[in-house]
Design goal:
The protein is of the alpha+beta class. It folds into two domains: about 60 residues, no CATH class; about 35 residues, no CATH class. Helices cover about 40% and strands about 20% of the residues. It has a three-stranded mixed beta sheet with strand order 1-2-3, covered by helices on one side. β1, α1 and β2 form a beta-alpha-beta unit. It starts with a strand and ends with a strand. This is DUF7869 domain-containing protein. It holds the Pfam family DUF7869.
């Protein structure tokens, strides 16, 4: 089975309890056999709610509420395409998790 990269964006600082749960799950995935080779977690910069990326999430959330069900990946991709994208990688703090095998 081909190993994949999992990219996550957490809204909030790394010390918040909600992110501790995410970190615990990522650690569990990294030490056990699973098809994920790398886990990359990105925390937006302080004040990110004024960045274009937050406006994209706002538009996505509005579209999600209009849908009663979404079953296929294609449905999600269509919504993502409808709102566009915005990513300023220079202004984001990234954490890289790798599997034990590396």
């Amino acid at each position: 089975m081909e190993k994949k990269v999992l990219k996550l964006y957490c809204d909030g600082c790394g010390e918040q309890n909600k992110n501790n749960i995410v970190h615990t799950i990522m650690y569990f995935l990294s030490i056990h056999q699973c098809p994920i080779k790398e886990i990359i977690i990105t925390f937006p910069v302080q004040g990110h709610s004024f960045l274009p990326a937050d406006r994209v999430f706002g538009r996505l959330e509005k579209l999600f509420w209009e849908k009663t069900t979404m079953i296929t990946k294609k449905e999600y991709y269509e919504l993502f395409k409808a709102v566009g994208n915005s990513l300023d990688t220079e202004r984001h703090q990234k954490y890289l998790y790798t599997s034990k095998e590396d």
